[in-house]
Amino acid sequence: MTKNEIADALAEIGTLLELKGENPFKVRAYQAGARVLEAIEEAELARLIAADELESVKGIGEARAQKIGELHATGQLGFLETLRASVAPGLVEMLDVPGLGPKKIRALHDKLGLADLAALASACRDGRVAALDGFGEKTQEKILAGIAHREAYGKRHLWWLASEIAQPIVEGLRALPGVIHAEAAGSLRRGMETVGDLDFVVAATDVTSVVAWFTTMPRVQEVTAQGETKASVRFESGLQADLRIVPEEQFVFALHHFTGSKDHNVQMRQRALARGLRLSEWGLVAADSRDPDGGGRMADGGPEPAKAAKPATVKAAVAQTAAEDRVVVRTETELFQKLGLHFIPPELREGQGEIEEAEKGELPRLVVLGDLRGAFHNHTTASDGRNTLVEMVAAAEALGWEYLGIADHSKASVQANGLTEERLLAQVEEIRKLNASQRFKTHVFTGTECDILADGRLDFSSEILGQLDCVVVSVHNAFSQDEATMTARIIRAIEQPHVTMLGHLTGRLLLRRESYRVDAAKVIDAAIAHGVIIELNASPWRLDMDWRLWRKAAGKGLRCSINPDAHETAGLRHVAAGINAARKGWLVKENILNTQTKAQVAKYLADRQA
Ligand code: DGT
Ligand code: CA
Ligand code: CA
Ligand code: ZN
C-alpha cells in the first residue's frame, strides 16, 4: 500500500471507532496518525519502516507503527477488517449524508435507536431529530434533503470511476476470440460528468462466447437480461452495463447509435430522411427500401416503418434488405460523410447545434490532453494536500509538464490547515530555491487558493497577493447565502487587483453536494470585464464550471484554465477529466491558459500582476 492509502485506512479506523463510541483519545490518535503520515514522503516512510524507527515519529506511536508496517507490507490489516464487520452498515451509510459526521450519527443511534437511512428519514419526518440536543429544525431539514439527494445520486456514477471499470472490460472483450471490434459507447464515450450505465458495442463472429464472458465477469452481481446477441449485468457497486453484439458490417451504425445522445440521434435520422435515406442502429438504407427496420421503430418521433412485415431476428432483417440498398461504411467518419457532414467528436454529440456546424465544416479543433503543458491550483502538505512540494513537482515532471502552479489554502480555511501570511511567504521562498536549484525540469509557479470571505473581501491583502505568480480565489464557507449575496460576493472578489483566476464557480460536488446559489452569467461577464480566468476544476467530483456554460462564455472572450486541484500526486492526472469537460464545452487550445508554454504563461502572469 502507498502512504496515502495507508493514511486512508488509519482515517477509516478513526471514523469507525468514533461511530462505535470508542474513547475519543484513541479516535483522535488515529486521525492524527493519518495526518502525520501524509506529511512524510513515500521514500522516507519506507526507510523508517525498514529501520524500525516509525514508532519514534511524533504522533505515531507503537500501536499504529505496527499497523502501518503491516499495511505497507501486505496491503491488509486484520484489525481493520474486524472493525468494519463490527459496525452496522446503516451507520456507515449515514456518513454519506452531508452534515452528518460520526459524532452526530452516534447520538442519533444512542438516543433515538436509529441504525439506517430509512429509520433516520422517518425520524426526521416525525420531528424527533429536531428535538434532539444539538440538532434543531434546520439540521433536520438538511438531513432529509441529503437523504433525498443521496437516492438520486445513487442512480448515477462518476465518469472517472465508471471509466476505470469500463477500460478493462473493453480490453477483455477485444481479447476474446472471434471479436473484431469492441468499444464503450453511451454517455461514457461522450465524456459526460456522470453516467447512468455502461454500454458496450461489439462486432463478433461468435456471439455465444462473448455473452458468456460478459455475464461471468468479476464482480457481476446479477445478470439482468440475456439474449442471443445482448446482455445486461449489474455489478456489486450498483453500476449496470449493457452489451450489444452485431455483425461486422453493422458495427459503425450500432456504435454511433449507442453513443447517442438521443437528441443527436434524432437529428441525424431527420437529416438522413431529408436526403432520402433511413438511418438506424442497423444501417443506412434508401428511404424507399423494403428494409423493415431502417430507423423507423424508435419511440422518439422517427419515421414510420416501411410496409414489409418485421422479420423475427436481426439476421433476417439484414438478409431481407436488398444488398444494393444498403450504404456501406467502415468508419464513423464515413458515416458522417454519407450525410454530408464532417466527423463529429463524441463529446459534441448532444444535439446542440453540432450537426449544423459539421455541415458548414466549422466544428472547432477541440483541445486534447497532449495540448496541456502544465497546470495550476495544486495543494501540498503545507495545507491539506497529501504530498510534499517536492513530491508534487517530481510527479509533474514525470508527466512531462513544463510548469506546476501551487495554490495551498489561505488562513480562513482552518479546516484545511490554511497558510498564514508567514507560512505562505516561507513557501514562496522554498519554491524560489527549488526553481533555482534546477533539481527538476518543471518550473514551479508560486500562488495561493485564497478564500473569498463571506463579504467578498479576500483572505490576504493586496500587498501579499502581489508577491505571488498566480492567485486563485475560491468560496469555501457561508454556502447558504442567497443568490444575489453570493453573486455580489464573488464579483467583488474578482474585481480586486492581483486575482488571476476564480476557483470552482459553484462549489458542487457531483453526486454528493449541491452547488451554492450563484448567477453564473453575471460572474462570467464580470470575469471577462476584469480579465480574470475562470477555472475548469478538473477534479472528477467537481468539473466546475460546468461544460454547458463554456461554449457561450468562451465565445464572449472568457479564458479557461484546466486545474486539477490535486491534493496528491495521483490527482494531477485528473486533468484528463477536465479535458473531457472542456471538449464538451467546445473549447480549443487557444481558450486555455495551461496549453501555453512556460515563457508565455510567465509573461501573462507577470503582466497581470503589473
Ligand atoms: P446514461 O446511461 O443515462 O448516462 O446515458 P446514455 O446516453 O448512455 O443512455 P443509454 O444508456 O440509455 O443509451 C445509450 C444510447 O443509445 C443513447 O445515448 C442513445 C441511444 N438510445 C437509447 N434509447 C434511444 C431512443 O429511444 N432513441 C434514440 N434515438 N436513441 C436511443
Ligand atoms: Ca449509458
Ligand atoms: Ca444503456
Ligand atoms: Zn477549493
Overview features:
DNA polymerase, domain 1, Beta Polymerase, domain 2, Beta Polymerase, domain 3, 5-stranded mixed beta sheet, globular, binds calcium ion, binds zinc ion
* Lateral strand order in the biggest sheet: 12-14-15-16-17-18
Task: Report helical residue fraction.
Answer: 40-55%
- Under the CATH scheme, which architecture of the largest domain would be assigned? Alpha-Beta Barrel
Q: Give the number of domains.
A: 4
Q: Count of DSSP helices?
A: 25
- Strand content bin: 5-15%
Structural class: alpha/beta
What gyration radius follows from the Cα positions, in whole Å? 27 Å
Which overall shape is indicated by the principal axes computed on the Cα atoms?
A: globular
Q: Kindly report how far apart the N and C termini lie.
A: 46 Å
- What's the CATH class of the largest domain, please? Alpha Beta
Q: Please describe the biggest sheet, giving its number of strands, its sense, and whether it closes into a barrel.
A: 6 strands, parallel
Number of strands: 18
Ranges where pLDDT stays below 50 over 5 or more residues in a row are 294-312
CATH superfamily of the largest domain: Metal-dependent hydrolases
Average pLDDT, all residues:
93
